[in-house]
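Appendix C reproduces, verbatim, an entry submitted by the partner laboratory led by Prof. M.T., so that reviewers can inspect both the input and the predicted structure.
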Amino acid sequence: MAKVNRRLMAAVSAGLLSATTLVNVTAGASAHVATAHPHTSTVSTITLKLAKPFSPVAPKGGHDLYHCSLLNPKTTINEMITSSTFSPGVLAEDHHAILYLVPPADAARAKKLDANGTGWTCFGGPGINGQGSIADLGSAPWLSAWSPGHGPSVEPSGTGMPLPAGSLIVMQVHYNLLAGSKPDQSKVTLKMIPAAGSNLLPLSVLLYPAAVDLPCPSGVTGTLCSRAASLKDIGARFGQSAIGFDNLLEAICSGGTPQPGDTSTCTWPVGAKNYVRQITPHMHLLGAAFKVTLNPGTPSAQVLLDVPSYNFHYQRSYLLPTPTEIKPGDRLQVSCTFDPAIRSLDPYLKTLPPRYVLWGDGSSDEMCLAILGVTSSLTMNSSVVHQQSILRGAQWPARLSALQASTPMMSFQSMTDSITNRYTELADLRAMVRYHLCG
């Protein structure tokens, strides 16, 4: 109990911190703040903010709203972003934010969604290419992600995020309104240099999730303490596609049989050769520890990141001391440990009924997600130069992305009985094999 209280006190007093160079984070270790390295090209700085304050209202009587706003950097040449800083308008209600880049080809669709500057509700992804499918979750390239305790997102030395001429930016803010709702006017500041002649390697984002199955603590009961009831609640709050995503992660990570407990683990095959330069762990309020391991259980196993004392209110990205190669044939394991005791101590969570905690978009739900910043090469060459003007969407592992072209997430409910989470028909098993979700 004392351990949990110390973590909560640290959460309250935590300040902003930028990316660190630590990979194995242990007690007593010092944090080294990452600094941007100077470039020969001219650095420009722009600040973009909402045209007017936005007053969030949670739908369906819940406490969470995902709202997207469209920002225009008015770029006339290809740029490389070297750092981005999200400044929350109301820190108490800004749970996290993600900045998405919109290439010129998608600008018209984004402007239509924006409805003359009022923005739009956007649970999951920004919805530029249609909401409710796996495709949308990674459709728009990620520029950066912010959550409390995360300061400026400084790209690893020698890299940058492409911003082609004519691109727009979607600022998605997750508002958690348990503490009330106030008008918000968040903003983002970008530092960038012209892509031509910058010699910067283009950075892209890989996403590796793990299913979450955190049961109510022993002796605690409630109407949401079964997985079936919690799954229905997830669907009611965030749409039926949220149920599909939960079931899909279960199918991939555990063969469709939930593994209730305080730890979530998923091992993914690596789909393409890349060099990992930084890792950002993401969990919610119950997160306690986080680890990413390359080729677990083999003689060549390598822990890329170990955060034994994760704190949602003090989140940060971690730079690897040297870029680490991942390639087809490798396996990447994501492991998260949660502390359910926090739910009865956190001033917000303790006001809510107990629940079987699943992967979900709300603050009272959880996530287990490794966000990898990678480059396709260690050195510049002709193909890499070409990538400096191409936006690449945040990429989910192949077993997720291979389905996105033809399969809405809702259809995965037909693969499993969402009430019992057991396969009920031979056709379901055949579908799982067909989509390579099981052997």
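The chain has a mean pLDDT of 77. Additional entries are available on request from the coordinating office.
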